[in-house]
Design a protein that fits this description.
about 240 residues, mainly alpha, Cytochrome Bc1 Complex, Chain D, domain 2, binds heme C
């Protein structure tokens, strides 16, 4: 008899639990029910700290990041390339080709350098060292150009690559235009919420003037706070 009672209790408890789960499911369904987004997958644009994989990372918005790049840091980062490259005008090839003017230039830009077959193959697919291409190559050379004879692991830090590419552009590639900033990727741009299209107004319309500004020559956009932040707790007067 007591055995029956025990099973009754267990069964009752299980039923009760199932009931509670059902009720919570229904209730949350009512509370959180929302329309499906008009444009699926818009959160690709949202900054996602969890997306650590480089494959998932959007390429930088060059029009925004290049004028803000730290050229001194870029030059310092070039120390990692200098065992094999120099970027001086008229500089000789070393283990790697001279890199003066490589930004925006053709892949295999040095006629006299013995490039690998892998690089020859790559040139057929992507003939120009644009910003995205350089960025991908410097991130992981052997992954972007499998079989390249540039034996360099790559620079994983995005800001370091941005600084380096900005500095490298100034070594003979000043004529290679920086694209206009993407208004949708400005810090102030509204994230597309509730199915609304991202607001484009308020973003500066940067028309290509045909004349490429030198990187680093853009006016600095330092925001000076109007007033120092108020102290959170007023110190009691000395007694
Ligand atoms: C260990 C030597 C070595 C290091 C270090 C190195 N490179 Fe290279 N790099 C090479 C070689 C060799 C090639 C030619 C690759 C090929 O033919 O496959 C090359 C090719 C390149 C090219 C393509 C040039 C062209 O004419 O198409 C670029 C751009 C480049 N390197 C940039 C860099 C940058 C930037 C760094 C530093 C972050 C760097 N490399 C570090 C050896 C090196």
């Amino acid at each position: 008899m007591s055995g029956d009672l025990k099973w009754n209790k267990i069964f009752g408890a299980a039923l009760g639990t199932a009931f509670v789960i059902l009720v919570v499911q229904q209730a949350s369904g009512l509370i959180y029910h929302s329309e499906p987004p008009e444009k699926m997958g818009y959160f690709v644009d949202a900054p996602d700290e969890a997306a650590g994989a480089e494959e998932a990372e959007l390429p930088p918005d060059w029009g925004t990041v290049l004028p803000a790049a730290d050229l001194a840091a870029g030059e310092a980062a070039f120390a990692r390339c200098q065992a094999c490259h120099n970027a001086a005008q008229g500089g000789a090839d070393g283990i790697g080709p001279n890199l003066f003017g490589v930004v925006g230039g053709p892949v295999m830009h040095r006629a006299g350098f013995a490039y690998s077959d892998a690089m020859t193959k790559h040139k057929a697919e992507a003939p120009t060292w644009g910003y995205d291409e350089l960025n991908s190559f410097i991130t992981a050379p052997a992954r972007y150009v499998p079989g390249t004879k540039m034996s360099f692991a790559g620079i994983r830090d995005t800001q370091t690559r941005i600084n380096l590419i900005a500095w490298l552009r100034n070594q003979g590639s000043g004529g290679f235009a920086v694209p206009a900033p993407d208004p949708a990727r400005q810090p102030g741009a509204a994230a597309p919420a509730e199915g609304e299209a991202p607001a484009a107004e308020g973003a500066p319309a940067t028309e290509a003037t045909g004349e490429a500004p030198a990187v680093g020559a853009a006016p600095t956009t330092q925001q000076t706070p109007a007033a120092p932040p108020a102290a959170t707790s007023a110190a009691p007067p000395n007694s």
